[in-house]
Structures are given as C-alpha cells and as structure tokens.
Write a structure and sequence with these properties.
It is a single chain. The chain is of the alpha/beta class. It has a single domain, classed as 3-Layer(aba) Sandwich (Rossmann fold), CATH 3.40.50. The protein is built from six helices and five strands. It has a five-stranded parallel β-sheet with strand order 2-1-3-4-5, with helices on both faces.
C-alpha cells in the first residue's frame, strides 16, 4: 500500500491551502494511495532551538506535536508540504516543522532519502516563487525525488474557496498528485 501525507502549513482551517491539499490527496486516493491530511493549524510546532542534542539522542527534546507528525512523515511514501504565502515566504508553522524534521532525518541517517514529495503554494498575488523554493529546498536537501507537473504547484486565491476558481492551478495540483503516485508505484515495483 502507498501512503501519502499532505501537511497543511496554514493557520487557517478550511482555507485555500487546505482545499488544494485535499484536492491533491483526493487525486492520490483515486490513483490507489492511502492518504492523510495533517493540519498544523490545530497543532503546536515550536521552532528548532539549534541545540543539536538530536544528533546524540535521535529525538527532538522539544515536547509538542512535532513527534507525531514527524513519525507519519517517516512512514509515508509520499509527502506534500503546503503553505500560503505570508509576507513573501512560507508560514512559520511549516518552517518550524521542516527545520526540525530535517535535523531529525539527518540524525537518523537521512530517512527521507528517495521518498517522493513536493510543495504546494497558495498566493494572493505574489511571493509564490520564493515560497515554492523554500519548501522545495527541503525535499532537495533531504535527497527526495520531486515529480514535475504541468506548471509549478501554485494556485491563486485570497478569500476562503477562491482558489477553486483557479482552474489551471487545480489541474496542476491534480497532475502533480497523479505523478507522485505513479512515481511511487514505479519506485516500489508496483507497476
């Protein structure tokens, strides 16, 4: 079974970022994946304090909701990280998650290496390229495989649900999810 997690880095429950991740996960499920949506909005993920104790203990000493989410990411075959644009960059919530996940992955021997993943970004008007790059850099430095799509994984909208009017953005996100599952199946020898 293929397991894909979609992490919504928006503090807004049910907003445009969550709508896009839900679309991606729905498409992945149609392609045969088991999926799970993880909202950071109702979780506490504190920022990394750069203590580096994780290199000895293989765990993060900060006690919050990070560990549960990290373990799901570690089990997943595919990981989607999504953020709205906040003042030209990703949200503090998603950055705190990936900073800590990157350290723990490294401490445990690069556990995300050769997994499949990719970013999704929602913008009102601008900042999407930098935010996409921020998230993309996580996948690349972890040695993950990022499938392409028909365009960058970006859609536009400000008010809740407005992203549903971005037909090209929705097509791009759905195509990305199909490619993700297709790639995972080939890597795992399922097709």
């Amino acid at each position: 079974m293929i397991y894909v997690v979609g992490v919504v880095g928006s503090p807004r429950v049910g907003g445009n970022t969550e709508i896009l991740v839900s679309e991606a996960l729905k498409t992945a499920a149609e392609e045969g994946a088991q999926t799970e949506l993880i909202r950071l909005a109702d979780k506490e993920i504190r920022p990394c304090d750069a203590c580096l104790s994780c290199w000895k203990t293989k765990e993060c000493h900060i006690k919050d909701d990070f560990q549960e989410i990290f373990e799901k990411m570690a089990r997943a075959d595919g990981i989607i990280l999504a953020s709205p644009v906040y003042f030209g960059s990703a949200t503090p919530q998603i950055m705190a998650l990936i900073d800590r996940a990157g350290f723990i992955s490294g401490a445990r021997g690069r556990i995300f290496e050769n997994k499949v993943g990719g970013p999704i970004v929602v913008a009102r008007r601008a900042g999407q390229n930098f935010t996409l790059a921020q998230l993309l850099f996580f996948f690349l430095i972890q040695g993950m495989i990022v499938p392409g799509s028909t365009y960058w994984n970006v859609a536009f909208g400000r008010e809740r649900g407005e992203v549903l009017r971005d037909e090209e953005g929705l097509r791009t996100i759905r195509n990305f999810a199909r490619k993700m599952v297709w790639l995972i199946k080939r890597i795992k020898g399922l097709e």
